[in-house]
Design goal:
It is built from three helices and two strands, in the order H-H-E-E-H. A two-stranded antiparallel ribbon has the order 1-2. It has a single domain (19-171), classed as Helix Hairpins (Orthogonal Bundle), CATH 1.10.287. 76% of the residues lie in helices and 6% in strands. A hairpin with a 2-residue loop joins strand 1 and strand 2 (99-105). The chain starts with 7 loop residues before the first helix and ends with a helix. It is rod-shaped, with a radius of gyration of 38 Å. It is mainly alpha-helical.
Length: 217
Amino acid sequence: MEQVNPTRMELIKKREQIKLAEQGKDLLKEKMDALIREFFSIMGSVSKSRKELEMIADDAHRSLLAAQAVDDPIALKSASFATKRLVSLNIKGKNIMGVPVPIIQKRRVSRSIFERGYSIVGVSGRIDETAERFEAELDLIIELAETETALRRLGGEIQMTRRRVNALEQILIPELRKEAKFIKIAIDERERENLFRLKKVKKNIERKKKAAKMQKM
């Protein structure tokens, strides 16, 4: 325990610190509960999207294998080059209980057959289907990137808030209470000593008065 001054002012100060620490702990617990609710709300949508992504990825892979097995390799490669392009994303942000999370604003990657850049005469329906399914997969990957990033940041904030609550509950508040108890015991002991001295002084005064009275008689 650090050196504390056992005075009534110090005791009042320690009790006020305990009160503030308790209030801070309660506020952090409320924040943590809200973050956990938000975390599990997002977790539900992420789990659903991951399962959907697995299905879409499997469908896209099967479509590609079918196109590779049946269609002209040159036509397939030409179509892939024609559809190749950069994906531009506009990323903004919002706060969830003080935690910054990304919001990805974009146009969908998926396009119609007339927007893909290749001749509809030179490709088969299998190649169109392959392009469509891979575009759908990319759309979902971008959506998952947003929600999973939010999930990671919320998870990190929950862990940090829990550490703060534990530090208050297990370290700071017990230490403050220990110091307050020490000060209270020291004050009580000092008051008992003062009372004992006062009684002793009073007895001495009364004894002297009595002795003086006896001498006059």
